[in-house]
Write a structure and sequence with these properties.
By secondary structure, the chain is α/β, with parallel strands linked by helices. It contains 2 helices and 7 strands; from the N terminus they run H-E-E-E-H-E-E-E-E. A hairpin with a 2-residue loop joins strand 1 and strand 2.
């Protein structure tokens, strides 16, 4: 059984990457830009959109969040998809959450 990724895990994995690294979501066979995050109770919901969010913006949005051991979910319409890992592009400028 795979463990769902938590926000703290994601922040640790991406800590050494450039602030301008862009985030993408893997939804089915599509790779869509991560455009919005929403904190709902003990979950961090990640939504696709038109423009990919950078690591800098992501960190700025969560900087005041104290409880960071919440689970990460990709949202496709009304369906939540568990996040289990990431893929980092060889140049380090793109991250795809899977």
């Amino acid at each position: 059984m795979r463990k769902i990724m938590r926000l703290t895990d994601f922040l640790q994995i991406t800590a050494d990457l450039d602030q301008q690294t862009k985030f993408y979501l893997s939804l089915g066979k599509n790779m869509l830009p991560l455009a919005k995050i929403k904190i709902a109770g003990n979950e961090c919901l990640l939504y696709p959109g038109k423009i990919a969010m950078t690591k800098e913006k992501f960190n700025r949005l969560i900087k005041n969040l104290h409880h960071r051991s919440i689970t990460l979910w990709l949202v496709d319409g009304k369906k939540k998809i568990a996040t289990f890992g990431i893929q980092i592009a060889p140049d380090g400028q793109k991250i795809k959450l899977t």
